[in-house]
Amino acid sequence: MKKNSSVQEVIEAVTALAPESYAIEGDPIGLHFGKRDQPVHKVLVTLDVRPEVVEEAKEVGADMIFSHHPVIFHSPKVLTEEDPQQAMYAQIIRHGLAVYSAHTNLDAAEGGMNDWLAEAYGLEDVHSFGPHAYEQAYRLITYVPWENVTQLEEALAPYPISQIGNYSHCQFAVQGEGSFIPNDEAHPAIGQRNTVSRVEEVALSFIAYEREYAQVVEWIKANHPYEEPVVDVIPLANGKRPIAMGRIGRLKEPLRVKDYVEKIKALSGKDGVRYISPDPQKKIQRVAVLGGGGSSYYPKALADGAEVYLTGDVDYHTGHDILAHGLSVIDPGHAMENICIPKMTAYLREWFDSHQKNIEIVESQVDTDPFHFA
Description:
GO molecular function, one term: metal ion binding
InterPro entries: DUF34/NIF3, DUF34/NIF3_bac, DUF34/NIF3_sf, N-reg_PII/ATP_PRibTrfase_C
Distance between the termini: 52 Å
Protein name: GTP cyclohydrolase 1 type 2 homolog
Order of helices and strands: EHEEEHEHEHHEEHEEHEEHEEHEHEHEE
Mean pLDDT: 93
Structural class: alpha/beta
Largest sheet: 6 strands, mixed
Family: Belongs to the GTP cyclohydrolase I type 2/NIF3 family.
Strand order of the largest sheet: 7-12-14-15-16-13
Organism: Aerococcus christensenii
């Protein structure tokens, strides 16, 4: 039987994919309206929170909205319903809606916004570029009786541990002898109370990153044969993973810039896309992407060897700078990020289904892109 859900559980689902620590400093992510213990039965997933989206949430019976773009991007100095934006805030409060936003943390997340875009735009061999932060790695060491090693390894196999580049479950084992004396209150799996026990053990060593190591420790303890398993947690000086919003990869086959523009136009479902290129007939293969307004990152894309950069909101003067550097840019508009609506909907449905939670996740049908092509 599925259990009911809360705002906090929706936040936990989102941050399992996109930890808040991944956000750029000052980005107003997080819970903007509502309470963490507030019950949630239906979540509406949207790119932007606009008055039409709030009306949609009311119509479909949602009690929470997930948005990519923060609903309160600039804090108001006064609150008056004479201002349309603040009138929308009043409607959110009146109807008891919770609103949670994941912005640059979702952009940077592995398997998040820019990985979705890289896949949609046909990129292979993708990696990140332009890191804005680094995530600490930890080495976890636990001591297991020799006969239980395989059992623990199999129990941990489904979990994302010890990821080093393109390799997962990278671990190390050292055999030795462990000793302990259970006291009168203990319930030892091996040995007797008040008696020295010596056990042939294996020290198993794993790697886990900042966002996951506490959960990995819990997984180890939950599947360990001992009543009081030891798990050493050691920060690694050389084990920091870059956190970056941009992605860069290559096309399966080289394409002319102009042909790739047409492909992006078709994929975007728009009547047109802007582009900059010193040579539209040039064949390109190495492509960088950063959803939303990422024009300030073009030097980092260029430094990583990009021949074409996909991003939105390129302004006139930056366009001249990009052209002078010989880089081609395709600008499908900021709303290129609306890919998050079906992707986050699918992710949240799968997460809550796997956690046996009674919650409905629905896609917003409102097009919040303010721009049109005539």
